Structures are given as structure tokens and as C-alpha cells.
Amino acid sequence: MNLPACPSCSSAYTYEMGALLVCPECAHEWSVDEAVAPDELAGAVVKDAFGTVLTDGDTVTVVKDLKVKGQSLSIKVGTKVRNIRLVDGVGDHDIDCKVPGFGPMQLKSSVVKKA
User: Which helix (H) or strand (E) holds 38?
Assistant: First the structure.
């Protein structure tokens, strides 16, 4: 029997425990009815601060100053970020990118606009 991967950590080592599916790596439990195919997760739409739909590879511009944790500098308004990737990040950070002068980080789509 082929069980779906864990929706939390994508582990392929899931097993059945009664009516639930369990992931041994992250201890996530879910019912068979809640199992979501990865293709359905990819269908999520990410929009920028103005409602424009974003896609992988887009160039975006930061619309407000962003303080960077652990640094005295901040990302300024108007900073262009090229070649973004849409991810299911920590919290509501859904853009993975490299910000010029700061390096790789995740941003919220609510603080950028499509360039």
C-alpha cells in the first residue's frame, strides 16, 4: 500500500495507526481524509501587496523599510529582488530570495510589489 508523504515535513516514512496517518520524523498526525496531494499544495496563489499574482522567477521591489534581525542595517524601500522562489516558509514568509547586500532570506509577499 502506498501512503502519502507527511504534509508537514514531506517525509516518505509515514505509517497508519488506526484511522490516522503518522510521521515518525516530525510526529505529525493527520487523518486519511485530510491527506492533500502535493499538486494541490502547489496550486496556492501568492499575491503581492497590491494584489498582483506572483510566480517563481519574478522580480519584486520592497515597498517598506524592513529591519533585519541581527544587523544594524535595514532593507530600504525600492530595493529590487530578482529571481524569487515561492515557498511555504516560516510563518507567513512565502518568498525565498537573495536580497542584494544582505544575502539569502525569506520575505512576506505583503511587503513587496511585482516589478
Answer: helix 38-41
Per-residue pLDDT of the chain (115 residues), as tens digits, is 588 888 888 888 899 988 889 999 988 888 876 655 444 445 578 999 999 999 999 999 999 999 998 889 999 999 999 999 999 877 889 999 999 999 999 999 999 999 8
Residue whose cell numbers read 542595517 = 73
Residue pair 28/6 in contact (Cβ under 8 Å)? The answer is yes
Task: Note if the pTM is more than 0.70.
Answer: no
Strands 80-81 and 74-75: unpaired
The residues near 54 (Cβ < 8 Å, ≥ 6 apart) are 46, 47, 48, 60, 84, 86, 95, 109, 112, 114
* Residue 41 CB contacts under 8 Å (≥ 6 apart), including other chains: 7, 88
Q: Walk me through the domains of the chain, giving residue ranges and CATH numbers.
A: 1-36 (2.20.25.10), 59-114 (2.30.30.40)
Please answer whether residues 107 and 87 qualify as being in contact, where contact means their C-beta atoms are separated by less than 8 angstroms.
no
